[in-house]
Amino acid sequence: MRNTDEKWLRIAACEGRIGARKGEGGPFGACVVKNGVLIGRAHSEVIKRSNPCAHAEINAIRLACRKLKTVDLSGATLYTSCEPCPMCMGAALWARLSRVVYGVSIEKATEIGFDHSLFYDYFKDRSIVRWLEVKEVKSKGCTDLMNAWLLNPRRQHY
Amino acid sequence: MRNTDEKWLRIAACEGRIGARKGEGGPFGACVVKNGVLIGRAHSEVIKRSNPCAHAEINAIRLACRKLKTVDLSGATLYTSCEPCPMCMGAALWARLSRVVYGVSIEKATEIGFDHSLFYDYFKDRSIVRWLEVKEVKSKGCTDLMNAWLLNPRRQHY
Hints:
With 158 residues, chain A is α+β, with helices and mostly antiparallel strands. In chain A, 43% of the residues lie in helices and 19% in strands. The first copy, chain A, is built from 6 helices and 5 strands, in the order αββαβαβααβα. In chain A, strands 2-1-3-4 form a 4-stranded mixed β-sheet. In chain A, a hairpin with a 2-residue loop joins strand 1 and strand 2 (37-43). The longest helix of chain A has 21 residues, at 2-22. Chain A starts with a helix and ends in a 9-residue tail after the last helix. The relative contact order of chain A is 0.12. At the A-B interface, helix 1, helix 2, helix 3, strand 4 and helix 4 of A face helix 1, helix 2, helix 3, strand 4 and helix 4 of B.
């Protein structure tokens, strides 16, 4: 397993190098593998797309799901050059991935100027991020929308 | 402020209704507003795109950033029909949003079958999600990729 993991992490690193050299995003690459087969590989495209959500992991999950025509990647592994941020871990959870394997821990991301670590702290104590106010404003329209879901004939569970 | 918030939450709920009626995703809508101007609105497209990351908030942030040609939404507010999941809160943090305002709390999402709440618990105690293994496998290729970043002439901070 370890040798196999190292092989796929090399692919993830290779993707990251491609993206960084092209100036498309930060130094991050990822791939999704299921039953020994590569089903998606991607790098960060945050700069290229002016999209703060276009992380390597999000992109690789999107491509893998498109290829398999599913939102369920159970049984698959996400290989990523760096320990994922909370956004990407959230994506891995939604995609029902079975494994996430990373090659460098989050401290290295902090060292080169990325906020991963602070964002993990945020989930333990929201007051840490002072620039963001998060607030509930009760809304009947939003409640009605949720209540209507269980009666919706086009409802698909995911 | 409260009246204004309610107005934009109605737009978010309206987006959610459009998406749910079309069968494009769950009952979730969102919009991004800056200086009183709507700069992005979207609903969940998880089903339509077979993409578990295509939440309303992620889509609205992407559209707003594209419109303003930036990855920095500081000064802007994300209005979302339901309290965001950790993936979307992570996206809000990366986008440097100043406010997140939601119309229904996360318990309602649980009630109609979505996993938001479990995913927040995951960030407090990873052992809660039993189907996912997360593992570091130290990789020289990935470390080299990170180390090269600070010397990269195409490096842009975000």
